[in-house]
Structures are given as C-alpha cells and as structure tokens.
Amino acid sequence: MTVRFAGATASAPFADSTRLEAFCATAAFDRPTLVLDIDLVEAQYLALNAGLGRADIHYAVKANPHPAILERLVGLGARFDAASRGEIEMCLALGARPETISFGNTVKRAADIAFAWRAGIRLFAADAEEELEKIAANAPGAQVYIRLIVEVSQADWPLSRKFGCDQAMALGLLDRARTLGLDPVGFSFHVGSQTRRADMWEATLDQLGQTWDAARAAGHELSLLNIGGGFPAFYGEEIEAPTLYADRVMDLVTARFGPVPRIMAEPGRGLVAEAGMIVAEVMLASRKSDRDVHRWVYLSIGRFSGLAETEGEAIRYQFVTPHDGEPTGPCILAGPSCDSADVLYEKRPVQLPLTLKAGDRVLIRNTGAYTSTYSSVAFNGFPPLAVVTI
Q1: Are the beta carbons of 300 and 344 closer than 8 angstroms?
Q2: Rounded to 10 degrees, what is the CA torsion of 139, 143, 77, 164?
Q3: Which is it for strands 328-334 and 295-299: parallel, antiparallel or unpaired?
Q4: DSSP class of 262
Q5: Each residue's pLDDT tens digit, 8-56
Q6: Is pLDDT above 80 for 243?
Q7: Could you tell me which residues are beta bridge partners of residue 60?
Q8: Contacts of 226 by beta carbon, 8 Å cutoff, 6+ apart
Q9: Partners of 157 in the β-ladder
Q10: Which of 135, 175, 220, 262 has the greatest count of CB atoms below 10 A from its CB?
Q11: 105, HSE (Cβ side, Cα atoms, 13 Å)
Q12: What DSSP assignment string belongs to 116-162?
C-alpha cells in the first residue's frame, strides 16, 4: 500500500505537485495567494473515479467553487453536490446539466427550492418534516433522500449533530415524503472529514446499514445511497492512495448495503485540497519573554483570511520555508489580524527553522479546499485571499 509522509511518499507521489511548488516558490505576489493547479484536480478525480467504479462522483462544490475547477470537472463528466442557489447557478453557467446536480443542503429557502426545480434540478436532501413540506410545495414530485445522523465516526474531524436524523425519524420521513407526493429514493450520510483510512468507515457503515435494512423491511424500495464525503487529503499523517482507498470503501459499502442501484459519493477536500498551495510571508517572529521556550511566528494569512480550518487545530497544514533543513524550534503560529482568536497552532506548536524572520516566504501545502471560500471579505481591512490558476 502506498502511503504519503510529510514532504515525500514511501514510493511515488499520488500526483506530481512539482510544477505547483516551483511556481509558488518563484512567482511574485503582493498578498497571500492561493495557487491552484487544475491538472492536479483532474488527476485526483480520475484516481478517485477509478476506485469508486460504478458510484457517481458529485463534487462538493463548497470545497472550492473556482470556475476553472468546475469547468474542468464538467468536461470530465463529473456531477455536483450544491449547497445553495449560488452554487447551482455557477455549475449551470459552466455547462453542468441540471440532472447532474443534487441540492444536498438539508436547510434550504423555499424560494431557492423553487428556483432549483425550475432550473431542472430533481434531487433534493432533507432531514426534517418541515423541509419535506417545503420541497413538496416548491418541487412537486421531486426525488428526495433522507440524511442520516452519524453517531459513530473515526474521522479526524467528526461532523456535529447539525445535520441528519436518527433511524426512527428517518423511517417516518420516508413515509411522510410519500404522502406529500414526493419520491423518497434513499439515504445519505457523511462519515466525517478526514477519514484517513478506508477501514475507518466500518463502524459508521455498520450503524447506517441497520437503518437501510430497516427501511427495506418496512416496505421502502430504496434505490439510492449517498455515501457523502470524508475522502482525505494529506496534512502530515499517512493516508492511502486515492484509488485503493475508494475501491476499499466501495467494497465495505457493498458488503453492508448489497447491490444498490445507484451510489453517490461527494468528495470535496479529497478531490481539490492537494491541488492548491498558499503563498504567504512571515510578518514577525518574536518571543514574549527571555524565558519563553516558544517563538511566536505571525503569518500574513490567518484564521479570518483563509485558514479557518485550523479551528481546534483540526487540520494540520504543512509549511515550506527558505530555511528548511536548518535547525528548528517550536513555534506558536498566528495570523496578522488584531484579534486574539487569530491563532492557528498553540496547543501543538509547529517546528519551524530558528532562522525564520520577517519577510521570508512561506508556502502552505495542500490548501486547495476550504481556504478561499472561508476567507473573509476584509476583516481588519486585510483583503480576501487571492486565487490564481496554472
């Protein structure tokens, strides 16, 4: 099995990021910038697609809705998971057919449901009776799938209870959808972000397989299973190669759910994260006292300008500096804003070169997902994260 470690792999890279890193190391930027290599997006899509086999990839647009990404994926035959009217409009404008788009947010404005229905969208998610009623009123006869809550997750970042419902409610919602004139076709779930190994899916699938079986026993002819996201990117801990990972997940799904007529997968991070690199710089390297063991290193980018996923230090980004290879020491890493919450890593300090100083360029690897979309408009007057493609 091929695994990836910090800066290298045990054998060959999953995708060659040489061009991306070379561009980021030499190009001129006057503010923090995310650089996307669209060819790497394509390579990852093809690798995941090979492993997922008969499952349809619905790219989670929220991970990165850059037009160049969406346009390339449309050309490759991808489908899309949209969370809003805005995302639907972007996909349609770039050539996606409405039948390839799922309105996967379980919390939708009635007017946006009506818009999606008029645009030709026929597949909607729900996890509450009131949501089904909105769909029935604004998208009569639509197909719906019920999102299940995941009680057991081994993901690095398990999702909260914000989305999904339990088994008893899910079965009742299937019945309610039918009485409302909708077509309840199946279930969806999300195993949790950064589920680094395929075998981490097993406990979740065991739980949800019981709900699938209960629904069928109750007379529901289910035809769709949406296995959501969870496909990992590399942030310092080993992950499995994408094709092997996806193939193993599909084996686990088939063993528990049988020959489901239609399976959807919604990779977001696992499709685009490794296609992006942020170029930033050191703004200050300092200590709070002569006794302080840790240095504070302040970057030109922080939690409010693209690195929101450092919340709880959940996502551990990897850094490249011009002093790599020199002696290192522990650093508390922080952003540039006048906000005390703008600290990236403090509980687990980052090892960075002792010679790092203000003005040094810092490259942040595997930042193609959930960075530009999380960047604030202008908090403290700092501009939003710039994006360029190669």
Answers
A1: no
A2: 100
A3: parallel
A4: E
A5: 333 334 668 899 999 999 999 999 999 999 999 999 999 999 999 999 9
A6: yes
A7: 81
A8: 58, 102, 104, 125, 145, 186, 187, 188, 189, 263, 264, 265, 266
A9: 193
A10: 135
A11: 16
A12: HHHHT--EEEESSHHHHHHHHHHSTT-EEEEEBP-----SSB---TT
The pLDDT of residue 329: 96
- Between 110 and 16, the more confident residue is 110
pLDDT of residue 159: 72
Gap between the Cα atoms of 344 and 336, Å rounded: 11
Cβ contacts of 354-357, under 8 Å, gap ≥ 24: 354/326, 354/327, 354/328, 354/329, 355/323, 355/326, 356/282, 356/285, 356/297, 356/321, 356/323, 356/331, 357/282, 357/285
d(CA 48, CA 40): 12
Rounded (5°) CA angle 45-51-53 = 95
**Mean pLDDT of all residues in 373-390:** 91
Check whether 315 has a pLDDT greater than 80.
Answer: yes
Q: CA-CA distance, 212 to 202, in Å (whole number)?
A: 15
Asked whether 14 and 242 are in contact (CB, 8 A), the reply is yes
* Nearest in space to 57 (alpha carbons), one of 208, 263, 269: 263
**Closest of 158, 258, 250, 122 to residue 198, by C-alpha:** 250
Contact predicate 98/119, CB 8 Å: yes
Residue 363 token pair: 């490259």
Which pTM value belongs to this model?
Answer: 0.92
The C-alpha angle 48, 53, 54, rounded to 5 degrees, equals 130
Mean predicted lDDT score pLDDT of the chain: 93
**Largest alpha-carbon pair distance within the chain?**
71
The closest of 317, 192, 199, 238 to 14, measured between CA atoms, is 238
